[in-house]
Amino acid sequence: LIGLSRAVDNAPDANEGTWRLMIEGLFTTVTNVSFNEKTIRELIDQVHEEKARLVPGCSGCGSRCGRNDDYDMNLLWNAQEDIRSLKSLILFGVRGMAAYAHHAMMLGYADEEVNRFFAKALFAVGEDWDMDALLPIVMEVGEKNLQCMALLDKANTESYGTPAPATVPLTVEKGPFIVITGHDLHDLKLLLEQTEGKGVNIYTHG
């Protein structure tokens, strides 16, 4: 994904598919998502294909500049501790932000400024920058995260209405059940529709 962010920096024709791939790639690495080797490999292949589309001449270049290469994560983990800490804040921050962006994207909502920041942040992680250069990116992660949360709130409220307090029974009903996170309202809606009238109870932490 850092290699893709480098390609985006060098190419003018990044599109909705580019941002979707970047967001899906980041979201796939979030710890509460089931890791699947096959899925990860397929995403890596898609990232390489998108890089080749954005900068078609780079893969066969005889004089590589490194601007579109994949990033060796060992460079981050073995960096000087302050640099490692700042880059980790950026990386972990955009991974969490990608979850919000992905949920909003599933409802048809996106923010071009937020999308481009994913590339900006990943690009920064891959560069040999000092603390003075990285710290503003760290601060911007927080700013863009709030912007992304506002986007998701808009997506949810315009799709499902404004949340209101409700009395929820705490009784555990007999019969088969499914436990699901309440983060993704779109998935929750689909599951409720698919199980309606089938005697399957759905539980969530809300």
In terms of topology, how is this protein built?
Layout (H helix, E strand, L loop, with lengths): L1 H9 L5 H13 L8 H18 L19 H4 L3 H26 L5 H15 L4 H30 L16 E4 L4 H11 L5 E4 L2
Parallel strand pairs: 1-2
Helix pairs in contact: 1-3, 1-6, 2-3, 2-5, 5-6, 5-7, 6-7
Descriptive key words:
4% strand; Substrate Binding Domain Of Dnak, Chain:A, Domain 2; mainly alpha; 2 domains
Sheet with most strands: strand arrangement: 1-2
Count of strand segments: 2
> Helical proportion?
55-70%
* Class per helix and strand makeup: mainly alpha
Query: CATH architecture of the largest domain, please?
Result: Up-down Bundle
Q: What's a quick, concise take on this entry?
A:
This protein is mostly helical. It contains eight helices and two strands; from the N terminus they run αααααααβαβ. α1 packs across α6 and α5 packs parallel to α7.
Characterization of this structure:
The chain is mainly α. The protein has two domains: 2-160, Substrate Binding Domain Of Dnak, Chain:A, Domain 2; 165-206, no CATH class. The protein is 61% helix and 4% strand. It is built from eight helices and two strands; from the N terminus they run αααααααβαβ. The chain has helices at 2-10, 16-28, 37-54, 74-77, 81-106, 112-126, 131-160, 185-195, and strands at 177-180, 201-204. Strands 1-2 form a two-stranded parallel sheet. The longest helix is centred in the last third of the chain and has 30 residues, at 131-160. The mean pLDDT is 89.
